[in-house]
Amino acid sequence: MVVIGREREQGPTARLGHYRARDGSHGAPVDVDLDRPHAGLIVGKRGSGKTYTLGVLLEELADTDGVSPVVADPMGAFAPLSAADIDATVVDPRVRATALDPSLWCALLGLDPESGAGALVWQAAARRDTLTEMSAWVEDSDADGATRRAASNHLALAASWDVFDSAGLSSERLCGGSVTVLDLSGVDHAPANAVLAAVASTLYDTRVAGETRHLPWLLVDEAHAFTDGVAGRALERLLTRGRHPGVSCWLATQRPSALPPVAVSQADLLLAHRLTSEADVAALTDARPTYLDGGIERRLPAETGAALVVDDVTESVHHVQVRERRTSHGGESPRVSERVRAGHGTTSPHHN
Ligand SMILES: Nc1ncnc2c1ncn2[C@@H]1O[C@H](COP(=O)(O)OP(=O)(O)OP(=O)(O)O)[C@@H](O)[C@H]1O
User: Fold this and answer.
1) Is residue 229 within 6 Å of ligand 1 at its C-beta?
2) What is the pLDDT, as a whole number, of residue 301?
3) C-alpha of residue 53 to centroid of ligand 1, in Å
4) Within 13 A of 52's CA, how many CA atoms are on the CB side?
5) Which backbone phi and psi does 126 adopt, to 5 degrees?
6) Which residue has the higher pLDDT, 191 or 341?
7) What keywords are assigned to this protein (predicted)?
8) ipTM of the complex as predicted
9) Which CATH class is domain 35-93+171-337?
10) Best of 20, 51, 184 to mutate for ligand 1, by most ligand atoms within 8 A of CB?
11) Residue 333, CB half-sphere, CA atoms under 13 Å: how many?
């Protein structure tokens, strides 16, 4: 067995799959290190196996003591985990206002912290614990009427998203050791970003404060939907500084070119599934180290579930076939033929 992501044999690992020979046959098992925190990036075009690979990682994390896995799930692909034989809970995407620091509140509401309304929201976030209290504080402030109104309107917009709740996700819940699935399906871009920013900040702050012994692993599917929003700042902090306090952050995306370069360059483990867009391949090659001589393009796999794994820890490259899931995969695209088999529709026999 080969373990990627570490030099010394110690601690838990996740079974990722097997070496893949040129003829597609299986070689030795390949595991990923779970002993230390890692920044990971999973890329590949649509349907190449990214969400499936995240699911494999989650199954392994669920079986590992001492880690707290959290998955941000914008497509609802991980909801089936709660019905599987693993310790996973699908949670409502509701967070506490205090989880976001004042600077993130301004970014979230598109306010310049130097502006009157921005400064007011900043102070409200620093002084009050809930969105309702923040709004009341703004109303009672001695700022001029126009500034108060602008700040209040922005806070009212945040309230309309219905994701801030004083009973929202706690650090105990997120760092409690079982899998947390943040179901963000159907949640709009800004509130989904608010939720993920709050969760990423909570994981980081909880570890920095030494309030949990568990090492959190935050996995983000469809990460390009977050890196351009306020969550991007919180994720960037995890990618650049999370490993020191022990927080792992893994991003999965079909569009690596849409990620900030730091997301590619900070990943110590890159799992590249099939990728054909020139811009996306270039986003990887521009940020990858020289031991990938000859470029990445020639080495990218063509088959679903196959991945080129680039391991910065050992400066090595591996061709891997990701193993099959033990739990059911919720990322499958719906097929007309399945609807027909399930009796949901009618079709002519010629189209079966
Ligand atoms: N390692 C694997 N072993 C077996 N089947 C796989 C594997 N990886 C992917 N598949 C199959 O390929 C399908 C597509 O995979 P997946 O949903 O992970 O794609 P994706 O890259 O996340 O696509 P999208 O960008 O559309 O979300 C899966 O439903 C599954 O049937």
Assistant:
1) no
2) 94
3) 8
4) 22
5) -75, -25
6) 191
7) Transferase
8) 0.98
9) alpha beta
10) 51
11) 6
DSSP, res 245? T
pLDDT tens for 64-80 read 999 999 999 999 999 98
Supply the residue whose CA is at minimum distance from atom 7 of ligand 1: 305
Element (DSSP H or E) covering residue 229 = none
Residue 48 in contact with ligand 1 by CB distance below 6 A: yes
List C-alpha distances in Å: 162 to 46, 126, 194, 234, 320: 31, 21, 11, 21, 42
| Ligand 1 site, residue 332, Cβ cutoff 6 A | yes
Domain ranges of the chain: 35-93+171-337, 98-160
pLDDT in tens, 81-112: 888 888 999 998 999 999 999 999 999 999 99
Ligand 1 pocket mutation pick from 43, 52, 219 by most atoms within 8 angstroms of CB: 52
pLDDT digit string (tens) for 107-127?
999 999 999 999 999 999 999
